Amino acid sequence: MDRLREAVVSLFRVVTGLLFACHGAATLFGVLGGPHDGRIPAVGAWPDWWAGAIELGAGGLVLVGLATRAAALLCSGTMAYAYFTVHLPKGLFPIMNGGEPAALFSWSFLLVALLGGGAWSLDTLLTRSRRHLHAHAPVHQL
Question: I need a labelling partner for 74 at 20 to 30 A (CA). Which of 20, 32, 60, 67 fits?
Answer without folding.
Answer: 32
